[in-house]
Every structure is written in C-alpha cells, then in structure tokens.
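Many introductory courses stop at the sequence. We go one step further.
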Amino acid sequence: MDSVDKIICVSPFLAILDVIAALYVKGLGDPFARYKVGLFANFLSGTEMLNLYVYAVAYLIVMFVLAIALLYAKDRLDSSSKQGRLGLLAVAGIAGVFYVVLSEGFIVNFFLRSILERGIDFLFWLTGVAYLAATFSVGFYVWHDVVAWVRSADARR
C-alpha cells in the first residue's frame, strides 16, 4: 500500500469527521447557510434536522463508494503506458482534492465558534491556511510515490 492508497483510504474517515464537525456546528446553533464550511455543510445548507441525518448517511456512503472506486481505478492502471501515468496523476489529484477539502472543512468547523469570536476576516485567513497546509502536506506525502511509479515505467524500457 503506497501513499496514494493511504490518502484514498483516509478520505472516508475525513468525511466522517466532516459530518461530525458539521453536526457540532449545527448543534451550537450556528446555521449552515451562513458559513457553509466543509463539503457536507455546502451540500446541506438548507435542510431540516431530520433530513440532515438521512443525507449524512447518504453522503458517507457516497464517500466510501468513491474511495473504493478510486482504489479500484488505481489498481487497474498500468505504469508502462502514457494513459496509465496520466490516470495515476488524475487519481492522485482527485484523492488529494478530497483530502484537502475534507481536512479544511473539519478544521474550520471544529474551531468555528472561536473563529467567529475573532471576526470573519480571521475565518478567511484560517480557511486559507488550512487549505495551504493540507495541500502541501498531501503533496509532499504523495509526491515521492507518484514520481517513483511514473519513473518505474521508464526504467523498464
């Protein structure tokens, strides 16, 4: 299991944290429609509480199926072809985007109450810092395995 597989496998658990953090914000009385922080909160900003739990389960099922589909697609790629290399870059990019968005949503929702006490400008800056930190961390974590996988095809020729 390489780092791309690990990022894909972590994504559903980050989705669980995203749902928990969104429900936490909803429980504090802060409306989704006002801030819409996180992937789950963006989709469900106008729902009632009963529908929220149904949508949460559906959202988590979709995230687990997406992770399984990405793992399946990655396992079927061939590093000796150009399409296989581009496919790996696409799978790594999709997994990275989900990791970044879900991480940012969880971090900002978890600290939303203290962020709002400091002001909305601080929310903008923390969101930007969370995006950058997650982007750089996933980039540094995945980069070595992606480059090694792409170069392995060149070594076989």
